[in-house]
Amino acid sequence: MTKKKLTIRDIAAACGVSTATVSYVLNGHEEQRISRETRNRILHYVHIMGYESSALARALATGTSNVVGLYLPEAAQDADRALAGMQLAGALAAALEPCGKTLRLMTDACERQQMQTLDALVAVDVDSETFYRIGDNCFFPLLCVDGCVWDLDLFYQIYDDFEGIAALAAGRLGVEQPFLVLRPYRNRALNEVICQAFSNACLVREPGQIEVFLRRLPPDAAGLAFGPLMAERVRAHTDARVLTLCYDAAAESAVCDGETLRLPLAKKSAVIVQLILDTIARQAGEEHDIRVI
């Protein structure tokens, strides 16, 4: 179905401003007293939804550099997170290649400087404040991966379907409510989503926390640990059955293999890449909260 053409009235209504304010922003009238927050909200809405009659709006996301940035600020925090980050980078690079695009790892400069040479930027596990700071410096597609930013009119977020993961683990382990042990994400909203999906979740922030958590579990408990090293630590302190939760770069669907539950990284990367392409082409769908399993 062809989308209805966006008008200045639509933009003004969505952003809660006047049509005159929208016109001033899109035509670059710097002399008008419009706050940076309002200006950025209008420009972000335009690059998500499209406004084809504006030369400025068309220039916001032209898709001409053929480079997609990947920002992984938490990848070096521990070995499990580093492995997951590099697996994601490899899978994204492979998915982008047939589209004629390459992947570039970004430094924290993207939090401070305007990026001019990217078609899109994928920010992985950043908190809301950091995400908006990056958004202030770019008006091309900006995707939140492994995080939640609840401004779903402006941004897309893609993360693992933890409710689905909990259901798979429950079926595999034969328990009603499996536990989950993992290092917390930097993105606090995603941690809240995880805790809603797993009633027994241990977000490991300090030494000794795993042992205390495991001692409080009932004798018949069973669950998951995110990452092979974390799973090894958990198994060292309990006789409960523990599945290793990890990614599989080639998997198209979640697979239970022995004592391992593998998440489909190829599928997740394909979703991210297609969303990048659709957003550049202004054909992205209305669903902004995208969960993958």
Structure write-up:
By secondary structure, the chain is an alpha/beta fold. 39% of the residues lie in helices and 19% in strands. The protein contains eleven helices and twelve strands. It has helices spanning 8-15, 19-26, 36-49, 55-60, 79-96, 128-135, 162-173, 188-197, 209-215, 228-235, 265-280; strands spanning 67-71, 102-105, 120-124, 142-145, 156-160, 179-182, 200-203, 222-226, 241-248, 255-257, 260-264, 289-292. Helix 6 links the parallel strand 3 (120-124) and strand 4 (142-145). The radius of gyration is 21 Å and the shape is elongated. The chain starts with 7 loop residues before the first helix and ends with a strand. The mean pLDDT is 89.
Binned, the helix content reads 25-40%
Number-wise, the strands total 12
Beginning-to-end CA distance, first to last residue = 27 Å
Q: Which geometry do the CA atoms define? A: elongated
Q: Output the structural class.
A: alpha/beta
List the helices and strands and how they pair.
Layout: H1 8-15, H2 19-26, H3 36-49, H4 55-60, E1 67-71, H5 79-96, E2 102-105, E3 120-124, H6 128-135, E4 142-145, E5 156-160, H7 162-173, E6 179-182, H8 188-197, E7 200-203, H9 209-215, E8 222-226, H10 228-235, E9 241-248, E10 255-257, E11 260-264, H11 265-280, E12 289-292
Parallel strand pairs: 1-2, 1-3, 3-4, 4-5, 5-12, 6-7, 6-8, 8-9, 9-11
Antiparallel strand pairs: 10-11
Helix pairs in contact: 1-2, 1-3, 5-11, 7-8
